[in-house]
Amino acid sequence: MMKSPHPYEQYTEQFAELQAPLACLNLDLLEQNAQEVLRRAGAKPVRIATKSIRSLEVLRYVLTLSPRFEGIMCYSPWEAAALAQAGFADVLLGYPTMDAAALAEIARFSSRAHRTNDITLMADGLEQLQLAEAIGREKGACFAVCLDIDMSSSLYGIHFGVRRSPLRTVEETLRLAEYVRRSPSLTLRGVMGYEAQMAGVADSVPGAAMMNAFVRHLKRRSGKDIQARRSRIVQALSAEGHELAFVNGGGTGSLGFTAADASVTEVTAGSAFFNPALFDHYAGLKLYPAASFALPVVRVPKQGIYTCFGGGYVASGSAGKDKYPRPIWPEGGVLLPNEGAGEVQTPVKYPAGGSAVSLQSGDWIWFRHAKAGELCERFRELHVVQGGVRLGTWATYRGEGWCFG
Ligand SMILES: Cc1ncc(COP(=O)(O)O)c(C=O)c1O
């Protein structure tokens, strides 16, 4: 694990009068992460992925850090409407929707008269466009649309990428773009080609040299494929007279690669700001653990094993040990293989011996979540720290009473 420049020991003092479980956001580390995002994104603007943040105040704060942080990529249509209502501009819904009621809500922000709070819908098939078109017609709205192009590669019989969009070819994309052009209720605004296999697969995992080498090889091969497909599609759209306001790509793990692609006009980043544990092992990515959470030790079943209250905040994705929260302080703690992170209780084991850790009930153990925004589904607020001072709390989506699934 990358060594944090922040002395976690200080947290114990700073948070002494509070009760755990609690979640903490260190703004000094978040700002360093923001600088790393900007550096890796070259000169391109960066759209902020809300799914990896899930706090209005954090989103607002990140947007103040640089004029190159521009626009939002959200994950739910109801969230898109709520963000527009809260004053966020240029909200791209990163995933398609078939929710007619949510589209009717979004229509309020999508009439031609309300250009400032525009929401852009994501689509990769006719069925999503037809639904949006029907709602648009009914509500007198014109929905901006972004087409999602599949960026996965087929290599050595492996599907290297995610199963999301069926749109792969120039012809398929032009057909949908033409459908949008002909509809008075739709307008084509952008194209997204998200290369999940570059952005979300670690390639520098300690103790896995062979696997790392293989993943990097796959990434090199897939990278050529991605650049060729994305630029072919963007050029074809332009040749057919489609004017794109943006071509979006990338995520935290692929910022350098994606920003270097001339056909991409903006990159997306979200996880980088909190830097959860899954992002510790990407070659060249230098991030700091800005988000963490503390659990109280409530019982000591055996010397060296401390059982905390809470902790079963396991991350989504293919189930595996890497999705568990990771104990980070005091250093040296590990979860028990038979219990993992429990629904109500989480035991953490420390090795016996010379520098043995000695805790008692009431002490805290600090953790990092494996993913970023999911942490905020477990806590109503983040305790914000800057310059060694506790600034107060910022509400998470959960604290706002928001739950978008
Ligand atoms: C469409 C899309 N873009 C970008 C990202 C990258 O987000 P992050 O920077 O949090 O990894 C994701 C993550 O899953 C995504 O689904």
UniProtKB/TrEMBL annotation:
Write down the SUPFAM superfamilies for this protein, in alphabetical order. PLP-binding barrel
Gene3D superfamilies linked to this entry = Alanine racemase
Supply the InterPro entries for this chain: Ala_racemase_N, D-amino_acid_metab_enzyme, PLP-binding_barrel
What Pfam families does the record point to? Answer: Ala_racemase_N
Which residue ranges does the record assign to the Alanine racemase N-terminal domain?
26-216
Q: What domain of life does the native source organism fall in? A: Bacteria
Name of the protein: Amino acid deaminase/aldolase
